[in-house]
Amino acid sequence: MAVTMKAAAIVVAHNHPSGDPCPSEADIKVTRDLIRAGQILKIEVLDHVIIGHPGHCSLKAQGYFAV
């Protein structure tokens, strides 16, 4: 959708039904893959937010976007 809409940037979000918003290894890998793909497509990934209950986790705030 981001490509067809010619988006300049995206925010990725998903929920963890367990309620624990801590990122899994798969979440971290997918985030890094999305950042690399975004660099190729010139679509910046601004953040990846995981929604839990209660609370949320920003992978950017947790430092997973460091180069």
* Main sheet properties: 3 strands, mixed
Order of helices and strands: EHEE
Broad structural category: alpha+beta
Uncertain segments are none
Q: In angstroms, what separates the terminal alpha carbons?
A: 26 Å
Number of strands: 3
Percentage of residues in strands:
25-35%
What's the arrangement of strands in the largest beta sheet? 1-2-3
For the CA atoms, what is the radius of gyration? 12 Å
Mean pLDDT, nearest integer? 96
The helical percent reads 25-40%
Given the C-alpha coordinates, what overall shape results?
A: elongated
Number of helices: 1
Keywords:
67 residues, alpha+beta, three-stranded mixed sheet, 1 helix, elongated
Structure description:
The chain contains 1 helix and 3 strands; from the N terminus they run E-H-E-E. The protein has one helix at about 25-40; strands spanning about 10-15, 45-50, 55-60. Helix 1 links the parallel strand 1 (about 10-15) and strand 2. The protein is elongated. The chain starts with 8 loop residues before the first strand and ends in a 9-residue tail after the last strand.
Gist of the model:
With 67 residues, the protein is of the alpha+beta class.
What is the secondary structure topology, with strand pairs?
Layout lengths: L8 E7 L9 H17 L2 E8 L4 E3 L9
